[in-house]
Amino acid sequence: MASAGGGYVEMLRTRHAARLLTGTLVGRLPNATAALAIVLFVRAEGGSYTLAGALSAVYGVANACGQPLLGRAVDLHGQPRVILPSAVLAALGMTLFTVVGLDPLPLAYVAMVVAGFFTPPLEGGLRALWPSVLKSEDDIHAAYSLDAIAQELIYVVGPLIVMRIVAFWSEAGALFVLNVLGLLGALAVVTSPPSRKWRSEAREAHWLGALRSRGLLVLLGTFFFIGSALGSIAVAAVAYGDDHGGGGVASYLLSALGVGALVGGSVYGARQWPGTPEQRLRVLVAGLAVGYVPLLLVPGVVAMTLLAGVAGVFLAPALACAFVVVDRHAPRGTVTEAFSWLVTSFGVGAAIGTAFVGPAVEYGGAVAGFVVAVGSGATALLVLLVARRSLSAPETPGTVVARSENDRNGAVEPGFSAGVQA
């Protein structure tokens, strides 16, 4: 992994690295803040938590369906031809939602589908670009760690941006501004020379694409439940805020979650760790699952904010480790699609968690919402433990040794002989 903070500075000094990372982060703001922004907008329009959860779930499921399809399109056709048009369509979908509101409700659902499905695959695209921008293995691992840390910056800054725009303008204004920023971020990425020049390696024809990797499937199952936990926390935090002084409290909890992840990611990326990435991932997910349990105490605002920070400590390290594991298990020529599937599993989990936690909060308040998060975290760990052989041993009978285009570890992938591009 990254050697130290100096390694991050050196990596960012590489030409185009800072622009790509910043553009991706800004471009992801609409998606990263959607759970909170949609809930606040629906509540401002007079809708219930259940309706807010349902609309967020539709957005999340649509996003989950679109990410791998758009990721495969990027692998086949390049980044600018896919990412920019999809960013425009996603922004138009969310703009339609702010104009329509909740009446007529079917049109609001359609707007959520469009906004979610066409969210550009910026995360997968960035991770596919790193090997062409950064030439050393140390810099690439540093990039993955910094990528995970920087992602959490969105969860610190994003809720604060949402609440500030709501305070000075409105909930609809927050959705509009975030999507304009998202479009500008995507534009910054796709107009960069690395994005315009990048092409994926040729891939073997197979209808499952990246999903033919068993190790990747285990990883996706794990992050489905981690996403469910975070989606649950987003809604439970709003409910907690309603009971403890208003919506601003929810932003404190979600920002603290992001600060905890920033701290954890910085510590994780500052040194090398023993064992394989797959072994480290099990330890990190165990820490993540345990960290959610104290949220059930729902103490006062100050103490709850501290607990939220503790709950986020293992998130960025788990993500950084997962990026390496994806590299080790993704079949050749499917790198953007594989990373997009990780985003998808995370998004579907968040959407399902949001949908389930809405009725739970209506019935049992914030505590019930945090119960959903704790259960999801425990299930994520259970998936890793039960399927540890599939994730730890990528080589299976009938495989051939091949290197993923991002994998500097020589991981093997299933052998196929079609010899044509999927």
TrEMBL record:
Gene3D superfamilies: MFS general substrate transporter like domains (1.20.1250.20). It comes from Streptomyces eurocidicus. Residues 397-422 are annotated as: Disordered. Pfam families: MFS_1. The chain crosses the membrane at residues 20-42, 48-70, 82-102, 108-130, 172-195, 216-240, 252-269, 281-298, 304-326, 338-357, 363-387. This is MFS transporter. InterPro entries: MFS, MFS_trans_sf. SUPFAM superfamilies: MFS general substrate transporter (SSF103473). It comes from the Bacteria.
